[in-house]
Amino acid sequence: MAICKKLSQEGLTLTDEINDNACNSEIHGYEKVNRVHGMDETKITINHAFQKAARWQIIVTVIICAAILAGIGVHAAISSFLGGMAALVGGYAGVLMTRQRVDQSPGGVLIALLKAEITKIMVISLQLLAIFKLYDGLVAMALIGGLAASVLVSGAGLGAVGNNKK
Amino acid sequence: MDNMQLLAQIQAFTGIGIGLIIGLGALGACIGIGIMCSSFLDGAARQPEMIPVLQGKVFLLLGLIDASFIIGVGLAMMFAFANPLLSVIK
Prior knowledge:
The complex is a heterodimer of chains A (about 170) and B (about 90). Mean pLDDT of chain A is about 75; it is low at about 15-35. Chain A is elongated, with a radius of gyration of 21 Å. With about 170 residues, chain A is mainly alpha-helical. Chain A folds into two domains: about 1-35, no CATH class; about 40-160. Chain A has six helices and no strands. In chain A, α3 packs antiparallel against α6 and α4 packs parallel to α6 (about 140-155). Chain B is an all-alpha fold and about 90 residues long. Chain B is built from three helices and no strands. The longest helix of chain B has about 45 residues, at about 5-45. The mean pLDDT of chain B is about 90. Chains A and B meet through α3, α4, α5 and α6 of A and α1, α2 and α3 of B.
C-alpha cells in the first residue's frame, strides 16, 4: 500500500488491469506498474516515430511519383507510387505487431520486435509479388525506385525518438 | 548458339544472381540484427530502466538494417518476373 501511495504522490497512475494485484503484493505490483508504464512509453515512442517516418515516406513518394509522371508516363508513376505504398503498408503492419501486449523482459521485447520485422518483410514481399503478377503495365525500375526511396526515408523516424516535438 | 540455349543460359545465370542477391542481403541483415540485438541485451542488462527507450530505437534501426534487404528483394523480384536481360533475345 505504501508503494501505491508513493506512486500516486509521484503522479503515476495504476491501470485498471493491475489495480487488483498491485495493492495485494506491493513489490509485484510495483514491477507491474513499471512494466505497464514502460510499454505505454514504448508504444507512444514507436507510434510517434512511425507517424514521422510515414509522413516523410508519403511526401517523398508523391514527389517521385509527380516527377516520373512528368518525365516518363502514367504507368511508371503508378508503379513508383505502388512501390512507395508497399513500404509504407509493410511498416504499418510491423507497427501493428508491436502494439500487442508483450512481456517486457529484454528477451520478450526482442521476440516481439523480430516478429514485427518478419511481418513487415512478409507483407512487403507479398505486395511486391502481387504487383509484379497482377499489374500488366508495370515499369519495374520505377517500382524499385519508389520502393527504395520510401524504405530509405523510413529512417527519418529516428529523429522522432527522444524528441517530444511533433 | 540458338535462341533457346541463350534463353536458358540467361535464365540460369539470372536464377543464380537472384539467389545471391537475396542470400547475401539476408546474411548482411542477419549479422547487423544480431549485433544490434546483442547490444540491446547488453544495455538492458546494465540499465533495465532504459528498456522502453531502447525498444523504440531498436525497432527503427531494425527497419534501417532491413532496408537494403528489402530493396534487394524488390530487385530480385524484378529479375524474376520482368527480367530486362531477356530483351537481348529477339
